[in-house]
């Protein structure tokens, strides 16, 4: 079947996606689905089979020149996790490694204006999960998304970025270097034709692919109107697990995340919480250069420790602000980290992180 027939489907209005999927599942050819869809719906008179064919051919040529791979649905190469959702894209454009879609995946999403605490936790969780063979999925946005990608890369793991643009259009542009790093061992993918510019309506649509690829969605920090909550809602509709990291109750940055927790989302403090929810053993796989003891390895993703960058000392008030924990809850956690050798007391009631590998 010519790829142009499948690619032509991707230029039909997004509101028709579910009907298109149902027709393809019923065994209709993509050519028949295009004709049936145009006949069944009112549409722009310039939207014709001929115009769709031209757009499809142009997209394939541009994708080829950009090094993109076209993955058609339904075919054996199409990711089964996305094929299982109600409205899978007719085609996916991929840059990077196809086998990056094979490992079990977890999405880590959150605020574009994430707090230092949120960025540290996202990076730590992603690194710890990546070391355990989990692929990290996110959207390459500023803030929590990019921190999650970087965390996976820092651990030598696999990460997948789902675009709200064409897979050859990096947005935001300052993440071009990060996108290049992801391509080496991971993947950049999009349902949008190559060359598609970033438009606001595309980003909520791509969230169903982020959740669809993943066994669980972890919300690190989200306001009441955050796009991350759209991803969480789609994850629930798709039968995926939704988890959330608690944050500071005073600044309002994580009201959306706390609402998820009130509604029954599992609380996440370490990567083991995520693995437990997915039914995976919590045993840690680390590289030879990684920390040696089990306590060291668990500390990698501890959110309190994540609030203490190496070489920086903090007092209790600063740690409470960063972690979102009350002083009453924070003190026993710090004592536990101190007894295990991960934290030391400095003068003036301050605490400093102690990395034994240093």
Question: What would you say about this model in short?
Answer:
By secondary structure, this protein is of the alpha/beta class. The protein has 16 helices and twelve strands.
**Rg to the nearest angstrom?**
22 Å
Give the total of domains: 3
Helix % is: 40-55%
**Overall outline:** elongated
Order of strands across the biggest sheet? 1-2-6-5-4-3-7-8-9
How many DSSP helices? 16
Annotated CATH architecture of the largest domain: 3-Layer(aba) Sandwich
Percent of residues in beta strands:
5-15%
Structural commentary:
- With 358 residues, this protein is α/β, with parallel strands linked by helices.
- It has 3 domains: 3-96, no CATH class; 99-278, 3-Layer(aba) Sandwich (Rossmann fold); 302-353, Arc Repressor Mutant, subunit A, CATH 1.10.10.
- 43% of the residues lie in helices and 13% in strands.
- It contains 16 helices and 12 strands.
- The chain has helices at residues 3-9, 17-25, 30-40, 49-65, 80-83, 116-131, 144-154, 176-185, 202-213, 227-237, 255-262, 271-278, 294-299, 303-306, 316-323, 327-339, and strands spanning 69-72, 91-96, 105-109, 135-138, 159-162, 187-190, 216-219, 241-244, 266-267, 313-315, 343-346, 350-353.
- The strands form 2 sheets. It has a 9-stranded mixed beta sheet with strand order 1-2-6-5-4-3-7-8-9, with helices on both faces. A 3-stranded antiparallel beta sheet has the order 10-12-11.
- α7 (144-154) links the parallel β4 and β5.
- The longest helix is centred in the N-terminal third of the chain and has 17 residues, at 49-65.
- The radius of gyration is 22 Å and the shape is elongated.
- Mean pLDDT is 87; it is low at 283-300.
């Amino acid at each position: 079947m010519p790829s142009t027939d499948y690619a032509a489907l991707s230029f039909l209005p997004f509101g028709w996606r579910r009907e298109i999927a149902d027709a393809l599942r019923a065994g209709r050819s993509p050519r028949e689905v295009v004709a049936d869809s145009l006949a069944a719906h009112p549409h722009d008179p310039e939207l014709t089979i001929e115009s769709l064919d031209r757009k499809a051919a142009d997209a394939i040529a541009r994708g080829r020149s950009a090094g993109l791979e076209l993955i058609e649905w339904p075919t054996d190469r199409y990711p089964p996790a996305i094929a299982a959702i109600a409205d899978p894209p007719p085609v996916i454009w991929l840059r990077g490694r196809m086998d990056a879609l094979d490992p079990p995946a977890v999405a880590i999403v959150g605020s574009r204006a994430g707090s230092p605490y949120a960025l540290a936790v996202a990076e730590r969780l992603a690194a710890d999960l990546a070391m355990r063979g989990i692929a990290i999925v996110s959207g390459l946005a500023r803030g929590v998304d990019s921190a999650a990608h970087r965390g996976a890369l820092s651990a030598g793991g696999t990460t997948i970025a789902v675009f709200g643009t064409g897979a050859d259009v990096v947005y935001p542009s300052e993440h071009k270097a990060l996108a290049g790093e992801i391509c080496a061992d991971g993947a950049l993918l999009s349902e949008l034709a190559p060359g598609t510019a970033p438009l606001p309506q595309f980003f909520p649509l791509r969230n169903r692919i982020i959740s669809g690829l993943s066994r669980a969605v972890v919300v690190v920090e989200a306001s009441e109107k955050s796009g991350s909550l759209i991803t969480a809602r789609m994850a629930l509709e798709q039968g995926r697990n939704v988890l959330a990291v608690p944050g500071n109750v005073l600044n309002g940055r994580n009201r959306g995340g706390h609402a998820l927790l009130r509604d029954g989302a599992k609380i996440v403090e370490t990567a083991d919480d995520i693995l437990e929810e997915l039914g995976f053993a919590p045993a840690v796989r680390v590289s030879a250069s990684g920390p040696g003891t089990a306590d060291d390895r668990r500390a990698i993703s501890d959110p309190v420790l994540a609030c203490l960058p190496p070489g920086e000392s903090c007092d209790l008030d600063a740690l409470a602000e960063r972690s979102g924990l009350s002083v009453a809850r924070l003190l026993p956690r710090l004592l536990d980290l101190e007894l295990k050798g991960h934290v030391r007391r400095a003068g003036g009631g301050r605490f400093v992180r102690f990395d034994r590998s240093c």
